[in-house]
Structure formats: structure tokens, C-alpha cells
Design a protein that fits this description.
Layout: H1 2-11, H2 22-29, E1 39-45, H3 54-68, H4 73-88, E2 91-94, E3 97-100, H5 112-127, H6 130-133, E4 136-142, E5 145-150, H7 153-164, E6 173-178, E7 181-184, E8 187-192, E9 195-200, H8 219-236, H9 240-256, H10 261-272, H11 276-280, E10 295-300, H12 305-315, H13 323-329, E11 333-338, H14 343-347, E12 367-368, E13 387-389, E14 396-398, E15 402-403, E16 408-416, E17 422-430, H15 431-443, H16 452-461, E18 468-475, H17 487-491
Parallel strand pairs: 10-11, 12-15
Antiparallel strand pairs: 1-5, 1-6, 2-3, 4-5, 7-8, 8-9, 13-14, 16-17, 16-18
Length: 506
């Protein structure tokens, strides 16, 4: 998906009517001389992402690859196959049910904006009629939002909209027409004395979404928000007087969110003294990852974030002993803080599922028990108990579910009863299948060095299985996104110096 997005992103810039954002819009409008017969108009595609037919979308991609790229035919074929696969394997989960999306692409897909952009670019170049274009003096587009300057009057514009709504591309346009002013993206456009004026635009339903000053985020991020917002305001307002008017409203919103006057005033003054032409100048941002770029250390933000970063940087030179690590880490590392856990993460999970109050377990007994089968090898070594003990932390934990040899998705504990060392493993198969493998490996002298478990029993007790003890300590009910099968490895304080080993599940 990332490969498709990277390739398509390079094809989007040549599109003549495409803009990258508000700055690009204001830059293009600044070059226009307004005339009395001009009118504003906007067009918006209803549900673009979910409306693009797969075959038409691939046809649009092929059109742009052939016209604007220098890729080989083999690479073009590969890209079309890859995009086709992504489009035709687009499913999602809601309330425990899987749904397949037959038309369009998911809005969260990485390549979706570029895909939609190219589809609209294809529509512009091949389906906009020349007869209607005679009244279209100016047109720019940001993905599915179009801004137009029209000269033919409102009736002609309605006919134009009706014409473009008659198409075989599954596109449906909504429109707005105005002689004097109109809203587009986050700016309001007005004309006075044949001059285009702009100001910031907030939807009537917009709430105060500014991050609270007391939020658990880095201080530098909190301090940077007023600066960014006031600079954005200065950019969107064409006159200094309009900036001051809107800045007073923004000042009140920041105060409501707990920002102090000094921080607000500093941001206000900086934006006021900034030349608007500098803010409107195009910025060519490149995201090329060079060989010597710093590796990112990403962790969740907390009050201990600075101490964690300081500790990581302090002991980073330890890794320089390895030649490969040294080559990669010598330039240093960049530390990035992800947002801290919030109440919203717990109260509003992204995976929706209705609550089911019915009890899933019919057995009232909890603990680890033998299955009782005559031929079960595991039963002989299984310790029947309702609790287990860590020989490192000396802490006793209760086994909260009913587990026997036939249970699946088990975190298990192997204990060497001679020396007390322990091993935590986990398996998605039945417990007896996995333990039978351990027993066979320990008892087979040819396999005595295969795993850490077999090596320990060979060195400690000459592979004597009478010291081999096994317990199932938790059954993980894995959800759609998997379960925490390795939690007990950290909980029991397992490390190579204290215990036998930790393992991946099999």
C-alpha cells in the first residue's frame, strides 16, 4: 500500500487544476483580476472515496501513468495489479460482522487520497465538455472540492452542474453559487471594488477543538499551537485589520482552553509582525529518506518522557560495539512522543462491539487440571493447582480460568523442580500437543542442545523428566486483533539471567 501511495503521489503534481491546500489557493487567487461579470461557485463530490467504481478507477490510473510517468510497462502493470488487489480485498469489521466494500476505497487507506485525486483529474481531462468551459474562467480543485469563477450567470451554471451530473463515473456533485462571497476549505472569499478579499472561515457547527493547555503533551507542542494558529490566521486574512478582528476571537478560544496570556500575546505579536507574502510563499517539502537519516525512537508520552529519553541516549553508545548498529546509530536518534493514553481510548474503542452479558464459561471451577485421558503424556507431568508461583519474585498468582491438557491458547509454565528455574511459553495449539514436544526433546539425547529448555535439563539433571513440572497458567481469549499472550513473561520477571528463557508462541 505504501509503494502504491508513493508512486501515485508523484503522478498527482502535474495535474493543472490541483492545489495542495489553502496556501496554494490563496497564491493562485492573488494573481486574478476580478471583473464585474464574475461570480463565485463551488462544487463538491458526494462520498467520492466510496463512489469510485474499481474498473473506472484503474482506467484513470492507467491514463495518468501513460501520460505523466516514465515508468516501464512492467512497473505500470505491477502497480495496476497491486492497486486492483487493494481495491478488491477491501473489507472491514463492525459489531462482530465482516463487510466487503464492493465500490470505492476505504477512506483510511494510505493510497486513497492520491487514488481519488487522480480519478478526479481523469474526469477533468476527459469528461468536462468544451461548451461549458467557455463560461469557466477559473477552476481549482482540492481532491473532491472545486472552486470556480463563472461568467455565464446562475442559470447557465445550473445547466452546467446538471450536465456534469449526467455521467457514467458514479459522480454526483453538489454546488453553491454566489455573486459576492463564498466559502472554500477554511477561507471565506469576498469581492469588494473588484478586489478579492479573504478571511478565515469556521463552520457554524465547529466546536472548540484546540488542545487543552493542561493536556498530557510535551510543553513544546502546547507552546507551538498558538503560534501555528495565529500564523494560519494571518495567512488567511488578506488585511491586517481583518486579522486583528479574528485574532480577538481566537484569543478568547485559547483562554477558554487554559492558555496563559503571555503565550497567547507572544504568538499574536509574532503573526502580526510576519509578512503575509512569506506565509503565502510555496514551500517545497521533500520527504526523502537518506541513508544517514536518524533512527526514530517512538514511545508514548508521560511525565517520565524526558527521563526516558535521557536514559536511552545515555546508554545508546553500548550498541556501538556492534558494527551494524554503530553505522546506523552514530548520527544519533530522533525521539518522538506519541499521545498518552486517554479516557477516550478506553471509553470509545475503535473496534465497536455490542456488549454481551451472557456468561461464556459454564464451569465454576478455576485452575489447572488433567484431562484424564489414558494415553495423555502431559497428565503425568502436569501439576494440578489453582495457583502458581514465580520463583524469582516469590509472588503467588491465581489461575482464573479452567485449564486442562486439551485447552488451546494457553500460557504455560515449566518448572525445574530440582533448581527452581522456570520457563514461560505460549501456544495457540492444545496444551498437550506443545508439552509433548517439550517432553520428547528433553528425553531425546540428540536434541539436548536444540532449545534452552532441553539444554537446561541436560545440564541440571541429565535430562531426568522426574524434575519436569508443567502448569497452564492462563487461557487467552484472543479477540479479532489478537491477545496478550506474552504478558506473563514480563509479569514473572523472566530474563536470561534469572530464568531459562522466553519464547515465541507456536
Amino acid at each position: 500500500m505504501e509503494v502504491c501511495d508513493a508512486v501515485l503521489a508523484h503522478v498527482v503534481p502535474p495535474l493543472s487544476k490541483t492545489v495542495r491546500g489553502t496556501t496554494d489557493v490563496l497564491d493562485k487567487l492573488g494573481k486574478i483580476v476580478w471583473h464585474g461579470e464574475y461570480s463565485w461557485a463551488t462544487l463538491d463530490v458526494a462520498s467520492l472515496y466510496s463512489s469510485i467504481p474499481h474498473d473506472k478507477g484503474l482506467e484513470a490510473i492507467k491514463f495518468h501513468l501513460d501520460r505523466y510517468s516514465k515508468y516501464t510497462e512492467e512497473l505500470k502493470g505491477f502497480l495496476l495489479q497491486a492497486i486492483g488487489f487493494l481495491l478488491k480485498h477491501n473489507y472491514f469489521l463492525f459489531n462482530g460482522q465482516y463487510y466487503f466494500q464492493k465500490c470505492g476505497t476505504a477512506m483510511g487507506a494510505k493510497f486513497a487520497p492520491s487514488f481519488a485525486n487522480l480519478y478526479m483529474g481523469w474526469w477533468e481531462e476527459t469528461h468536462m465538455t468544451a461548451t461549458s468551459n467557455q463560461y469557466l474562467k477559473f477552476c481549482i480543485r482540492y481532491i473532491d472540492d472545486l472552486l470556480c469563477i463563472w461568467t455565464g450567470g446562475e442559470q447557465k451554471f445550473r445547466e452546467f452542474v446538471e450536465g456534469i451530473n449526467t455521467n457514467d463515473l458514479n459522480l454526483r456533485f453538489t454546488d453553491t453559487f454566489s455573486k459576492d462571497e463564498i466559502e472554500f476549505l477554511d477561507v471565506k472569499l469576498m469581492t469588494k471594488a473588484n478586489i478579492i478579499h479573504t478571511t478565515i472561515y469556521r463552520k457554524p457547527c465547529s466546536g472548540i477543538t484546540l488542545l487543552h493547555a493542561q493536556s498530557c503533551h510535551p510543553k513544546s507542542q502546547i507552546a507551538g499551537i498558538p503560534i501555528g494558529q495565529f500564523l494560519r490566521l494571518r495567512r488567511n486574512c488578506s488585511t491586517l485589520g481583518e486579522y486583528k478582528t479574528k485574532a480577538n476571537e481566537m484569543r478568547d478560544r485559547f483562554k477558554e482552553r487554559g492558555y496563559n496570556n503571555r503565550l497567547i500575546q507572544r504568538a499574536y505579536t509574532r503573526a502580526e509582525n510576519t509578512d503575509r507574502d512569506i506565509l503565502l510563499a510555496p514551500q517545497n517539502k521533500t520527504y526523502k529518506k537518506e541513508f544517514g537519516q536518524k533512527i526514530s525512537f517512538i514511545t508514548r508520552y508521560s511525565r517520565q518522557y524526558k527521563k526516558i529519553v535521557k536514559t536511552v541516549k545515555k546508554f545508546l553508545p553500548i550498541l556501538y560495539a556492534d558494527s551494524d548498529f554503530c553505522r546506523i546509530l552514530i548520527p544519533g536518534i530522533g525521539c518522538v512522543a506519541r499521545h498518552a493514553y486517554t479516557l477516550g481510548d478506553s471509553l470509545s474503542p475503535s473496534l465497536f462491539k455490542e456488549k454481551n452479558n451472557s456468561k461464556q464459561e459454564f464451569l465454576r471451577y478455576s485452575g489447572c487440571f488433567k484431562c484424564g485421558h489414558n494415553r495423555c503424556v502431559t497428565c503425568k507431568y502436569l501439576k494440578v493447582s489453582g495457583e502458581f508461583n514465580s520463583t524469582v519474585t516469590t509472588t503467588t498468582y491465581k489461575i482464573k480460568q479452567y485449564i486442562n491438557c486439551c485447552s488451546k491458547g494457553i500460557v504455560y509454565l515449566i518448572t525445574c523442580t530440582k533448581c527452581g528455574k522456570q520457563y514461560v511459553g505460549c501456544t495457540t495449539r492444545s496444551l498437550k500437543e506443545r508439552i509433548r514436544e517439550h517432553i520428547n526433546q528433553v528425553s531425546n539425547i540428540k536434541l539436548s542442545s536444540k532449545t534452552n529448555v532441553t539444554r537446561h535439563f541436560q545440564e541440571c539433571n541429565n535430562s531426568n523428566l522426574q524434575y519436569f513440572s508443567i502448569q497452564g497458567i492462563e487461557q487467552i481469549k484472543t479477540g479479532i486483533r489478537g491477545g496478550d499472550l506474552l504478558r506473563y513473561i514480563d509479569l514473572l520477571d523472566f530474563s536470561p539471567t534469572n530464568q531459562v528463557d522466553v519464547t515465541c508462541y507456536i
